[in-house]
Design brief:
Length: about 100
């Protein structure tokens, strides 16, 4: 399964894949419930390990997750401004994640 994800995410065929994209793809396709998936992905980006998430951590986690999923679905990458907007909404409506 990991080889299949690697091949899907290696869209430029340089044998290099972003590790956070790979982990995000594994989490998203897991059988966890959606809230647990969001928490798990965002926790990958809690670099200061304080258990709280700021807009930069949320934005990076969402960008990585979206990037992984559009590669797997063979879709065009969305504009980062749109992803950033959804990251701010995610934090606004779920401040405690």
């Amino acid at each position: 399964m990991s080889i299949a994800f690697f091949c899907l995410l290696d869209n430029d065929e340089k044998c290099v894949v972003d590790s956070f994209e790979l982990l995000s793809a594994f989490i998203i396709t897991s059988d966890m419930d959606v809230r647990d998936k969001v928490r798990e992905i965002v926790s990958l980006y809690n670099f200061d390990n304080d258990g709280e998430y700021n807009i930069n951590e949320i934005t990076m986690s969402l960008r990585s997750s979206v990037s992984a999923m559009v590669k797997i679905a063979n879709l065009e990458q969305p504009d980062n401004k749109m992803v950033d907007f959804f990251a701010s909404l995610l934090l606004l409506f779920n401040p405690t994640l």
